[in-house]
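Sequence in, structure out.
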Amino acid sequence: MDRCIMKEHILRHRWIYALSVVIAVGAFLRLYHFEDWMHYQLDQARDFRVVYAAMEYGPGELPLQGPRAAGSFLRLGPWLYYVEYVSALIFGNTPAGSVMIIALLNIAAIGLFFALSRRFFGPRLSLGLSTIFATSLFLISYSRFGWNPNLLTPFTLLFIYALLRTSDTEDARRGWWLVVAAAALAFLMSMHFVAFVTMPLVAVLYLMWTRTRINWRYWVGAIGVFVILNTPLIVNDIKTGGDNAQAFMQTLLARGGVDDSDEEGEGKDTAKHTVIEKIVTNTGLHVQYYWMIATGDQLAGMPTLSGMDIRCDYDCRHGFGRGMIALGCLVAALSALWQFYRYTSLNQERDFLRMIVLWVGVVFLFFTPLAYDIAPRFFLLVAPVAILVVGFVVSGVRLWLPRGGYTLGVTIVLLCIACNMFFVLRYFGELRAAATDPTAEIMHRDRVLKERVRVTFGQMMAIVDWIEEIHMSNGEAVFVHAQPEYKRALWERIDVRGIPRDPIALDLSPLYRKGNYFVVVRAQSDQEAFLAKFMPGLDIVERKAFGTLTAYYLRAKPEAVTEEEKIFAPSQRDPVFASGVQIRYLWRQVWTEE
């Protein structure tokens, strides 16, 4: 008897040790050159401004609302800012310090994924799937910088796992798991509009389907925790007369839902497409992104439907084989899931399969009206399912092929891991080259971040160092212009250093004699055309290459000068909102209100 207990103890610890190695690999891939290679553009600079103000003046500078949902006036909850503020307190008041917690939570998500996978699959397969999760190019890319969608995956996993534990009838703690699920849902709804709408519906449908019975005290506790975590939004809405609630209804009822037209190739007119066209497009995107999340390969192509015509563009034709393999895998996974649901007699397994159906089904239905506006980040909400699909395929192969099924299953898992590692190393190579090689190109379609070229935080810091050096040499203010995705990030970095700064007026009015003018442009852009608008009043003093970015130092032509120098007014701490835009209050403004 003692020998059996000892054997079970050793086996349990063996899996813990193996999972620790997998988590360590995932941590390395998410933290390697974390600050130097960090993605830092418009949204990241916007968020860090909020965190930096709170670090400088105190937590009262934190807002009661979070970022706006794209294409609407709806504001999400503020928990991204609060989480990043705590991270900055621990890891330092820098952009990398403020988002370190995002990387750490995504690392912790590997362990959460293993726990979720074990609800249905065996320990060996769960460990293999967790390794795919740890090495997934898609998940690694979104773990390495700050953005509100980047916390979707860890909080979704916590929410789904906790919700599953509520239906464990023999678990005395299942009431507490309901409270955990409510807390995770509150955080999740702060991160993205897609989660804001879909995850509460998943929770309601699951609890109704499983007929979960939990003591009313835990229901009160769960509701209380959810309300407390949403207190900032509630307080802000009370002060504005319900502006955000009205914006939510307008966004929910608007044709097409949310709009992400900032994404390349998106923002198309959804109204001109039929429901069938949207279903076909949505299905194709699910096939492509599930494949990419599980393998790292971004070239799977799927045909689309236009009226009664089936269309296959360049990407479709060149990735059609991959697309068909991906579609076949998804069909096999669905077939296996259905077969398992029909024949399993274990409540835990049946509840797991129910959850997968609801999780995928609700999100798919919500994505359908948005089919022509779906951004890659939307799939962070269902990214774990894409890897669980591999598990269903492998389990189905074992079931359908008694001989050789195990070997084929192991081969499938190893191929997914190897493919992801290949593409992750290629991605790291692109980031490394971006810092030094002006000709560095992305030699494939980037379906993860939709980038034309790689640009890193390290490059931006080098440019700001150069700007500061010139400013220190003559003490004159700086005026900076760049392509839209970079200019606000550069402005934020210059502001933090206390350098007086303004954008360059596109009509060059006014033009100051005492002023350092800088223009930053991608090395592979048409730089001559980009600079042409400034040439009537400015002369190029110096051109300097920073890898995939090129910076120009310019001075005003004597004959074009209209003013001696700009006198900067003291900066204003309180945010100013344009007419018609709902006010986002700071906690300081709530506490000090008379």
